[in-house]
Every structure is written in C-alpha cells, then in structure tokens.
Amino acid sequence: MSCLEEIEKTFERIEESDLNTFITLNKEGAIEQAEMIDREGDGEGRLRGVPVAIKDAITTKGIVTTCASHILEDYIPPYNAHVIECLLSEGAIIVGKTNMDEFSMGTSTETSYFGPTLNPHDRTRVPGGSSGGSAAAVAAGEVPLALGSDTGGSIRCPASFCGVVGLKTTYGLVSRYGLIAYANSLEQIGPIARTVPGVARLLDVISKPDARDSTQLGSEGGYLDNLTPTIEGLRIGVPAEFFGEGVDPAVSKAVWDMIHTAEAEGAAYTEISMPSVEYSLAAYYIIAMSEASSNLARFDGMRYGLRLEDTGNWHDTFSMIRAEGFGEEVKRRILLGTYALSAGYYGKYYLKALKVRRMIKEEFDRALKDFDLLFSPTMPFTAFKLGEKVNDPLSLYLADINTVAVNLAGLPSISIPAGYSEGLPIGLQIIGRYFEEQRIMNAAYALLGDVEDE
Amino acid sequence: MISDEDVKHLGWLSRVELEKEDSEKFARELDRILDYFTILDAVESDLSPLHHVLELSNVFRDDVVADSLTAEEALSNAKLQENGYFRAPRIL
Q: Which of these is catalytic: A130, A160, A207, A290?
C-alpha cells in the first residue's frame, strides 16, 4: 500500500468516527506529505509515513492551534514546537490536532470549547483528560501514535481510561518549546500508543536536545533499540497510600494481579508507606493554579486570539475579552491562582505548597533508593459518565490523587492497560527514577508483551 | 469565607470581568476548594521551598544572532493593527 493510500484510509477512519477526537484536521498538508514520500520512494526517517496525532496544546506552524479554547479559536502559529520539528524531520505525518480540556485544565476532556470527546469503550463515558482526544484516537485505531502533555496526569489518565499506553517523561527530558504553557514547572510532552514499542519509538524522536528550553536536558534516544522485556530481579515498591479508600476494589484487584504477575516473573515486591502523598493533591493544585494565573496573563487578544472592539480603556477591554474567551474551569483556576499568590495568602498557600513539594520529592527519593520501580493504580476508578463530575470541580480534582505526586517530584511514569472492569479499561502506573524511562518501559513491555502489532 | 466581593476583586486583579451571578457561584466553589487546601495547615515543615525539580540555575546560551519571526509573521494573528504595529486599547 502506498503512503498516500494509507493516509487516505486514516482520514476515512477519522471522518467516520463519532468520538470527536480531533479539533482540526491537517488533511491537505498530510496528503501533500504522503505524496512526496511516495514520489521519493525509499528514504530516511524513523517515522517515515507514520500518521501522528498532536494534542492541540502543541504549536504547529500553519495549522490552527486552539488549546480547546474560544480565545485561541482561530490562532495560526507562525512556528513549530520542537517536538513537531523532530517529527517532521523523521518523516512523520501530522494528521491533525486532538481535542483536550481547555488549556489542559481537566480530567475528562469535557471543558473543551469544542465539546467533549467520547470514550471508545463506552460512548456515554469520558475518555479521561486532559489529553483525551489523543488517547481516544489511539484507542479507537484512528492513528497508531499521538502526542499528549502531562501536567498532573493528563497523559496517564486518558491512557488508563482508554486502555492504551501513555508515558509521562522525567521533567526535562522533552523540550517544552512550543507547548502552550499551563504550569511550566510541572508539565512534559509525552507519547501515547497502543504498545510499549510504539511509545519507545515516539520517545526516541521527540527527546532530542533543544537549546530553546533551558530546563531540558534531552537524551540520545535508543529507547526502542534497547527495549527488552525485563522484570526479573527488580525490586518493586507498592505504596499503600495509592490504594486509599477512594480506589475502586476492582481497580485495586487488577493492579495487584499485575504485581503478582511481576512476582511470578522474578520481581520482588514490598508494601511501603509514603505518608506525604496525602498532601500532594492540595500542593499540586495550588502550584498549578498559581503558575496558570501568571501564564495565562498573556492572552489578551492583542497579538493573537479573540479580539473585541475596544470597550473602554486597556483594562476594561482585556477583562471583557478574557471573560468571553475563557471557559469556566480556566477562570476558576486563574482566580484561585491569583488568590494563592496574593499578599497575605502567599505564605499559607503557595509557599507552603512548595515546601510540601520538597517533602514529597524527598519521600520519592528515599523510596526509589530501596526500590527500582513503584506500582500503583493510575486512576482510582475506571472512566466515569459524561456530565457525572463536571459540575463538581473538587470531586473532579480528587480523581487526580494518584497521578499528581509524580509531577510534583518530576519523575517519569507510565500507564499501561491492566485488564477491565465491566468492559472499561483499568490502568497500572509504573513510576521510576529520574531519566530511567528505559527501565520503566522494559518492565511495562515484560508485563504487556506485544498486545497488538502496529 | 470568601465573599462574592472578594471574587469580584480577584476578577479585577486577573482581568476577567465577572457578572454578579458568576462571582456568587465562584465564591461558593472557591470556598470549598480553599477549605480542602487547609489540609496543608497540618504540615509542619522547615524544608526550603522546591520551585523546580532540576534546580538548575543560570542556563546560558551563546550570544549569537539567530533568526526570529519577521514583523509580518509576528503580526499575522493580530486582528487590529496599524502601520506595522499591534493596536492596543487606550491606557486611560
């Protein structure tokens, strides 16, 4: 089959789909790219001709990039994110921009200005979020590979709810140049695929060093070449706090089944306690909202995005534009972040959260000295119903209980499928040491095997 | 307790115009969330704040001229512009 035929099939699948996985399709550009690949015949490129979907928080030159927000509804970036340059230089075909929670703020992809994405396993349920479009597109077979971004679980949560593999990389592995910032000190771009080799393959391409992100160290790659199922002899820590009262017993059981499988294959596990994890959710939300309130100050409609006719002075005009352009959850987080940073409350909230952050990081450092990997459920439950939690912000925040601590500590972690409960996928989270993505993926590969060939 | 007047003020500080029913609704929601955040009051910590896990500082690049956006590219998304400039609302 020619590259063009394959890409045309990809778009057929996407256009027939009722899941609302994409906000914008890059059909013309993708077909042009495919035709060029067919003309050239055999050529270089580790992702040559492979269709890849991109979360709409990642900047793509000439392709509308909305962050699922009304305020950026018609924004056409004049430059590419580093990861997009990497993909294009390896011959990948950008098929389009996937749906997400507005500005990545959410756990369900329901806060998108463009309507929710549906879970391919049950269309009455959420796909998880915020990278819900990317995970659902991969799960439904619309594309083999997708990029997401993870600030507090936004790759792992939808990977868990949709039954695919999603990797949140070590803070500093992948350049954030061109990622529309929500909370800079927490977020990373990462790969989503149906298989562990798929994730390794995509990580090889996107983790190249980039001087434009001064917090990025990058890597030499080689993840796919070095991918070998390895679990024997590993010491696994199982923190009790990740199996708390909010965790569905069916989820708990599925994750324990995986732990016992690992044991049967030669790993040793120990139950441990990480008491400071209890504080991670509050610390995470305070830090993320504080950073968001500062980051999102740039959206004023003057240089790009929604612009209204002047309705008074500078402040009034911008206040009106932002009132119209931002959705409710984004406003809520900006207001809370502004509150947490304001004089008189800074010490109580923001500063305290940063101290707790160090406490959590040090607790992970200790745990990962004794253990090679930590295992937990990714999400406390399986995908919930559309509309079930969206009107109760706090209950939605509480769903992130098992994912946010990893972002506070900046550690890498993967979510892989761990079976089903009533037809809905369950996710196992594997956390590892800084920059030990290889060890995490090797263990995941040992547990998951070749589920489905790409 | 956070009042809807407080929320209105936060809206002003963050340049987000809020209608009365918005600020009332947000006040109730913010109250619940801030109440949850008090879980941190129990933490006695003399640890130094961790802003950033890599704890890098002063990462410099070589001081060389590189390409950047042209004026035309930079203005390509601006709805209101004049003589090659962004047009801003009046300040006062």
A: A130
